[in-house]
Amino acid sequence: MACYHMPMTNQAPTIAPAAPSQTGLRGAVVGDTRLSSINGEQGELIYRGIDIRELAVASTFEEVAYLLWFGALPTADRLADFRAQLNRRRALSESLLSLLRCLPAKGTPMDVLRTAVSALGVVDSHVTDMSRDAQMEKAMTLTASVPSILAAYHRISQGLEPLPPDPQLNTAANFLHMFTGDTPDANAVRVLDAALILHADHGMNASTFAAIVTAATLSDMYSAITSAIGTLKGSLHGGANEGVILNLLDIGSVENVDRWVERKLATHEKIMGFGHAVYKAYDPRAAELKRIAKEVGAAAGTTKWIEMTERMEQSVWQRKQLYPNVDLYSASVYHTLGIPTQYFTPVFAISRVAGWCAHCMEQYADNKLIRPRANYVGPRGVAYVPIDQRSEDINL
Ligand SMILES: CC(C)(COP(=O)(O)OP(=O)(O)OC[C@H]1O[C@@H](n2cnc3c(N)ncnc32)[C@H](O)[C@@H]1OP(=O)(O)O)[C@@H](O)C(=O)NCCC(=O)NCCS
Known about the structure:
The chain is mainly alpha-helical. It is built from 16 helices and 5 strands. Helix content is 55%, strand content 4%. Mean pLDDT is 94; it is low at 1-10. The site of coenzyme A (COA) has 16 residues, from helix 15.
């Protein structure tokens, strides 16, 4: 961090006493939520009280979004209506497509998504309407648009025309269809749908916190989700899944895994896909994705990635006793599905936008500005030195 050298002064500056700080806000509770809860000691995650392992097997992403937003699983009629409402909002406006066409073809998809979601707020004439109905409208527009934005940009960057959404398809199928141009394979749709379920919400994670900090200023939901996308992108958060596959590609084979892990740990480098700020047990999402990765690999006849990942898990455990997190096994699932690496974190966003919107609505319903304090550890009592009396000895 830039730090100015103490200017010349007769007064000895005093150093502020350092009160204990909670670095990284570990363990700090920012408020109440009814949306999801992690039991870090037991390795459990629930959405509205329901175990995610049950949801991953039996549910759909749309059902989970409904559960998060409305508080209970939908009836068949309500689910059909909810799906239809999402599908009506999937098509992108001409102005948004023009924006995507203007962006460099080599843009990073997460940056493109952040920019396009911000633009959605500009074209919504009800952006400042904070009523519950308007919030729900925005949540639907955002959740329906994210996969369409990513698929459209992918095609534009390939020199292809974006494809319209298919009103018969769900979120997972529509994304695969608009992204690849092919009729999606039913197994691939089910696999992606399960991954979307598992990523939809996760307590007060960094990107959700970014979203509610923005929402708590009574800024609009597009701004809140723009903040969240910028936060998810980081390699210590959602960006880790891209890091995992880049590592696997770098390692190349199962035989090289141990040596690679040893070298990384010896040089104190973080290994993507391991460790967690809350879980002190096996991340239940990682367990589900490991099962899915094995099924996907077996079906595709490419078990290399899952074998390497399992070896990495064993190797890291033997040397450092770190559990895998959600990003370890999602990487080989997405890679085997043929999703390009740069779209791994965006796929995370396709799902997490449902959780972000749910948290924003919860925040708006019982709002209080989020305004923590920092522990000042700098000098005090420093005299102001006029510009013509300052020395060159400034340490920037
Ligand atoms: C997620 C993460 C930021 C959590 O951090 P945290 O709870 O603050 O854990 P700490 O950074 O305090 O780590 C505790 C110890 O484990 C080590 N550690 C944690 N995660 C590690 C990793 N992925 N690789 C290597 N060592 C790791 C730390 O270096 C530290 O070791 P030390 O006690 O010898 O110094 C961290 O585990 C990480 O950077 N993981 C890799 C990125 C990733 O996969 N992110 C996705 C999270 S879902």
